[in-house]
């Protein structure tokens, strides 16, 4: 097998075994989903709630 | 429509968890990631008028976050903790020991990737964006994204094999 050529990026797909590629894909998704299943901190929820409340109480063009 | 609707607020709430996962992965630091998400949401709110209804809100938000990270947060990166487990320990969810290990292994493997490969593989491989969407988010050609993703996955495979996280026999 010829060595990887940095200028032939598309060939690299073929160099990674499909099973391995699938495993890496699954691990990446699990990793990301685990992080994304974390509760969002209160300060972020509060920020959005405040912004929204401000908008409701004082919509632009209401005066 | 010129001002954010309750629907927009709900959509931002809905996007927050995956924005946060992306931010944590980019910055390697949970507190900084939360600042980044907060900045992103504030900016999204302020630039609501520039969001085209019917276009992909998630892609728009990820673009804002990614650009903010590159312009203001990237320089702060990697002065971060390397202590084993400290990263997982800062997460709120009481994940099992095994998933903590898996999380840490992927985290440290991702940290070893070049920045452009890391963001590409996170967008396409983890967040579920298409190559085309990721190319728009990163403001580059689709072929460039494909190439970065391929390199990243090959490198991750090497790193995780080294770390013993991938069992080649299964």
SSE blueprint and pairings:
The complex is a heterodimer of chains A (63) and B (170).
Chain A (H helix, E strand, L loop, with lengths): L11 H4 L2 H19 L5 H16 L6
Chain B lengths: L5 H22 L2 H17 L10 H17 L12 H4 L7 H15 L3 H12 L4 H8 L3 H22 L7
Helix pairs in contact in B: 1-2, 1-3, 2-3, 3-7, 5-8, 6-7, 6-8, 7-8
Structure overview:
- The model of chain A is unreliable at 1-14 (pLDDT under 50).
- Chain A starts with 11 loop residues before the first helix and ends in a 6-residue tail after the last helix.
- Chain A has helices spanning 12-15, 18-36, 42-57.
- Chain A has 63 residues and is mostly helical.
- Chain B is mainly α and 170 residues long.
- Helix content of chain B is 69%, strand content 0%.
- Chain B has helices at 6-27, 30-46, 57-73, 86-89, 97-111, 115-126, 131-138, 142-163.
- Classes of the chains: A mainly alpha (63), B mainly alpha (170).
- Chains A and B meet through helix 1, helix 2 and helix 3 of A and helix 1, helix 2, helix 5, helix 6 and helix 8 of B.
> Would you report the number of β strands of chain B?
0
| Main interface: chain pair and counts | A-B, 38 and 49 residues
Largest sheet data of chain B? none
Which bin fits the share of residues in helices of chain A?
55-70%
Give the overall pLDDT of chain B as a whole number: 85
Query: Globular, elongated, flat, extended or rod-shaped: what is the shape of chain B?
Result: globular
Secondary-structure content class of chain B: mainly alpha
Quantity of strands of chain A, as a count: 0
Choose one word for the global shape of chain A: rod-shaped
Count, helices of chain B: 8
| Top CATH class of the largest domain in chain B | Mainly Alpha
What CATH architecture of the largest domain in chain B do you see? Orthogonal Bundle
Low-confidence stretches of chain B: 79-85
| Helix content, binned percent of chain B | 55-70%
* Count of spatially separate domains of chain B: 2
């Amino acid at each position: 097998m010829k060595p990887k050529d940095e200028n032939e990026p598309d060939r690299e797909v073929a160099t990674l075994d499909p099973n391995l590629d699938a495993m890496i894909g699954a691990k990446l998704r699990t990793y990301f989903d685990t992080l994304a299943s974390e509760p969002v901190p209160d300060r972020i929820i509060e920020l959005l709630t405040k912004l929204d409340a401000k908008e409701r109480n004082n919509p632009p063009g209401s005066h | 429509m010129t001002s954010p609707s309750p629907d927009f607020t709900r959509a931002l709430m809905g996007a927050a968890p995956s924005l946060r996962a992306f931010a944590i992965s980019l910055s390697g630091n949970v507190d900084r990631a939360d600042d980044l998400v907060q900045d992103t949401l504030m900016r999204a709110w302020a630039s609501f008028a520039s969001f085209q209804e019917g276009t992909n809100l998630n892609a728009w938000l990820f673009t804002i976050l990614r650009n903010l990270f590159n312009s203001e947060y990237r320089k702060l990166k990697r002065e971060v903790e390397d202590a084993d487990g400290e990263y997982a320990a800062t997460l709120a969810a009481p994940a099992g020991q095994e998933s903590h290990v898996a999380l840490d292994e992927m985290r440290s493997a991702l940290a070893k990737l070049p920045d452009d490969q890391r963001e590409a593989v996170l967008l396409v491989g983890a967040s579920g964006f298409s190559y085309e969407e990721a190319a728009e988010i990163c403001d580059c050609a689709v072929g460039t994204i494909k190439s970065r993703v391929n390199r990243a996955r090959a490198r991750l495979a090497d790193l995780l094999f080294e770390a013993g996280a991938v069992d080649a026999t299964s």
